[in-house]
Amino acid sequence: MADYRVPLKDMSFLLFDVFKADDMWAQLPKLAESVDKETAEAILQECAKIAEQEIAPISQQGHETGVSFENGNVSTAPGFKAAFDTYVAGGWTALGGDPEYGGMGMPKILTAQHEEMLCSADISFTLYPVLTAGAALSLAKHGSEELKQRYLTRMYAGDWSASMCLTEAHAGSDLGIIRTKAVPQDDGSYSITGSKIFITGGEHDLTDNIIHLVLAKLPDAPAGPRGISLFLVPKFNVNNDESLGERNKVSCGSIEHKMGINASATCVMNFDGAQGYLIGELNKGLTCMFTMMNFERIGVGIQGLGAAVRSYQNALEYAQDRLQGKAAARDKSGLKNTGKEADSIMVHGDVRRMLLNMKALNEGSRALSTYIAMQLDYATYGEGDKQVKGEALATLMTPLAKAFFTDLGFENTVTGQQVFGGHGFIREWGQEQLVRDARITQIYEGTNGIQAMDLLVRKVAGSNGKLMQVFIDEMRTFTQEHQSTEMQEFIAPLTTAVDELIALTDFLLVRSQDNINELGSAANDYLHVFGYTAMAFIWAKMAAVALDKQASGDNFYQSKLKTARYYFIRLLPRRISLIAAARSGCEVLFDFEDELF
Amino acid sequence: MADYRVPLKDMSFLLFDVFKADDMWAQLPKLAESVDKETAEAILQECAKIAEQEIAPISQQGHETGVSFENGNVSTAPGFKAAFDTYVAGGWTALGGDPEYGGMGMPKILTAQHEEMLCSADISFTLYPVLTAGAALSLAKHGSEELKQRYLTRMYAGDWSASMCLTEAHAGSDLGIIRTKAVPQDDGSYSITGSKIFITGGEHDLTDNIIHLVLAKLPDAPAGPRGISLFLVPKFNVNNDESLGERNKVSCGSIEHKMGINASATCVMNFDGAQGYLIGELNKGLTCMFTMMNFERIGVGIQGLGAAVRSYQNALEYAQDRLQGKAAARDKSGLKNTGKEADSIMVHGDVRRMLLNMKALNEGSRALSTYIAMQLDYATYGEGDKQVKGEALATLMTPLAKAFFTDLGFENTVTGQQVFGGHGFIREWGQEQLVRDARITQIYEGTNGIQAMDLLVRKVAGSNGKLMQVFIDEMRTFTQEHQSTEMQEFIAPLTTAVDELIALTDFLLVRSQDNINELGSAANDYLHVFGYTAMAFIWAKMAAVALDKQASGDNFYQSKLKTARYYFIRLLPRRISLIAAARSGCEVLFDFEDELF
């Protein structure tokens, strides 16, 4: 496997050339205190070191060894504890945290880059800190001052990690039917009883304590999702002097054996009258959880991207080194037959297609996720119109980020494996791990089918197109402002794509008035039409900057321009078939009796 | 995991209703001796029993245990030896073999169904007998009478298995640069020295002897592919009384640890002056090997299908059982909200989309592979025009079968895993094994990129469109003969698809006159355009039969008709985007300097 190299130049290009993050930070008082360009670049460079030097090297061993389970205890793979300690010592667990409780207050646009690096290095490792960060976000927003002082500070410090306990054996996508019970106690705490499955990091040996955020229902709670509350359940109770007290009545019953992310502990967690503390209001647990979920969903999108970036780097190195076959005799490209026994496989059009697909989709995903992260920052730290617009775009695009980047991420890891031929299937070369690790990102934190429904049903149709209009306006403004001749190769197809996205949206909203199943039936295709169109917008934005900068002579901008061109010519057309499918109606799906399957 | 159930009714529908295999057999003298409808149905039923009852039950254990390697010996997973013995005792190793040497002489159209069943049950297990069958085909066609009497008879009997030793560490897709040497000996045999990698079934404990077919070069052989010869190298030399003699100088150096097909031994095989026997003529080894390769490539296509069929059965059972969420309140489809806590996930449009994608692509692949197998039978057993046409179609469509069915097979196993949500990622549910096993089918026996080049460069362009015209004529004849009103929903889009395939072919042939890289750059997209169009033809053929038979009231025909409709409306449009990519030119791929990647 190639050594992982963080794409720092691309990250810096996005932050400061394309999205002018430094200008945004200067304008938002809370962020102006925490971060400027110099700080951000130093953070990215330091984080790159830890990803490249501490985490990437333990990944393959983690894949081979996995986690082990004995007597309720989980042991992580060799090197994980040491790497985690180094990570904590560097202060990385505090990166995005609230400064009032010891966090560094860094914006999402920056922590998104941090997450990508970690995930390229190793998704399994990354899950331990990012789930903690997600739980911290929920706790910071909804927890009482007492809970925050006691737990949040320690989570930011990296002393304790966290887990999210949502799923039960019979209730995954449908949390409304969970059965875990919370019974109020005289001291104001709750007694939590029930069993949760698929709990990432539910038990492990990296931290002294694990703080579980648990969805449960009071005995008299309303049925369905409106009866769910959120509780904090520590593995060890915490004494008033902040030392660890006795073990709470929560334990790990077993761990799952999975297709991938072998080094991440996926636990069955049993609560047997465990002491828990309410977070937020009773019966508003889903709201509290969604604070975390939206954060996590963008993060999961970035996980898919991270694996794909690593796969591209490996595939590129392999393609350059591997000698097999010869360049075509009539080749006019300048990639001449070298006269050697064999040429590098880079001479073959289909190998170039695979590599450029990966490059264009990865860089497009990074740019689009950075854009969405920026909207989250406006939503969180902005004021007035900018806040409203950021909130709208972040709300709209969260399911897109999760599903689109993970679908592309998985596709790209498979493509990167294919470049290796037979060696891609062999474990020691590392490409198969990336495929296996990336696969889960399409499934967890809400399957991509659920995300597609969330986008089309809840966000687009649910706002009667209003949220969508915000993004359409954004793209329209951009195309109107970039009508130069040299931008036409991007602006013309982008304009068509935007027009057709609007037409498709209108078509589906009208059709769904007559039959609500039109939405669910079209949702997956719609999400991808939206994704390729949004990515065209973001590639056009990058192309505009690269055109401005190309006179510098830096190859980086030439590469950006040519990759943008590749995206528009080779990849944007994918939306055409997807539109045809999305418009084909739900009859063909629903006029199909169960006994005919 | 659901119990595997062989789709016998669909196989019978294809053989006898759609393709009238019994009529073909009656017309071809060699086949008329071996097989008729009654025999064929008995064979399918018996084979279904062994697939369902003997092979499917050992699959998961094989995935978990894998094969083990110690002191040069390979031990297969628990149950494999017993299942293999049962398989041999049933005479299945002789099924497609030449009757002169103990084979049963069954046609490919029938053995293709047999292969699908085996692969749905377990690909790893299946590789042991199907590679032997492939080697037997090469030996039967090119081997001397002495070699056939000594080895072929024992391979058909199931006493001995075979391996194919092609790849070397530096030479996979490019066999012209292999280094394994064959030095002529005084007794007419050859001394073989070299190291081969990725040798499936190179060593194992299922049979007493293993017959390796090995590509090697004589010291004075011409450079490149024209200097390759094929040799038979037994693991144990065979005495004149047919008993096993001393161990030959061939040994297994190690086995690979892979992403999937864990129970199949993938070996490094070292030849250290091993005694070998020439098969066919000197320096014509690739020709001999391609006899086997064409057979294997269709078989590999069927492997992808086999895994996908199993995944569909599992996903359907899961979807029917899993209660999660509720049917839409405004649902007009009759899939009413049951009023229970949750409905089956079959009520969701996106779940139905996933299941119907799998069903339509699996049944389409089975039908198209059966059609191609029939062409191979005409090529092998036919005479005159029918033989010529069969040969042309089999030659043209072999790379299509390999790449298209495995790409769809992998897609479908991933889709089937997605239906399971989180459980799809957990090993015990079985869906992740199918994904991991199916993945290799896109890689081995020539990567799908190589197949795409073979189709477009060698077959389509190499015959200057003549081979393609044979298939176009076949589709044109069909559309002209099926102009009834009720067939229009299939014939109209099929006609468009055929017209556009012709136009794309012409476009690429003309463009490639100017720049040969146009072919390689478009090859992958072209193969899929061809595949979806050919599958539309085959779905229209099935629909025509189903329309004739629907009055019978059998749900099977209703299901066929509705699935055909689904294919045309939802899946055939995939070709539109692919055409756009295939027409986009090679500049965008080749005007991209190496340092810009």
Quaternary assembly: homodimer
Overall mean confidence score, pLDDT of chain A: 96
| Percent range of helical residues of chain A | 55-70%
Portion of residues in beta strands of chain A equals 5-15%
Structural class of chain A: alpha+beta
Straight-line N-to-C gap of chain A: 44 Å
What's the β-strand tally of chain A? 11
Quick synopsis:
Two copies of one chain form a homodimer. By secondary structure, the first copy, chain A, is α+β, with helices and mostly antiparallel strands.
Descriptive keywords:
597 residues; alpha+beta; seven-stranded mixed β-sheet; two-stranded antiparallel ribbon
What this model shows, in words?
- Two copies of one chain form a homodimer.
- In chain A, helix 4 (37-65) runs antiparallel to helix 5, helix 6 (108-121) packs antiparallel against helix 10 and helix 11 runs antiparallel to helix 13 (448-461).
- In chain A, 58% of the residues lie in helices and 11% in strands.
- In chain A, a hairpin with a 2-residue loop joins strand 1 (68-70) and strand 2 (73-75).
- Chain A has a domain at 447-597.
- The first copy, chain A, contains 19 helices and eleven strands.
- In chain A, the strands form three sheets. In chain A, strands 3, 4, 5, 6, 7, 10 and 11 form a seven-stranded mixed β-sheet that branches. A two-stranded antiparallel sheet of chain A has the order 1-2.
- Chain A has helices at residues 8-18, 21-27, 29-34, 37-65, 80-89, 108-121, 123-142, 145-157, 285-321, 349-381, 384-419, 431-439, 448-461, 466-481, 488-514, 517-549, 555-571, 574-582, 587-590, and strands spanning 68-70, 73-75, 160-165, 181-184, 190-200, 209-216, 229-234, 236-238, 244-247, 250-255, 266-279.
- Chain A is globular, with a radius of gyration of 24 Å.
- With 597 residues, the first copy, chain A, is α+β, with helices and mostly antiparallel strands.
- Chains A and B meet through helix 10, helix 11, helix 12, helix 13 and helix 16 of A and helix 10, helix 11, helix 12, helix 13 and helix 16 of B.
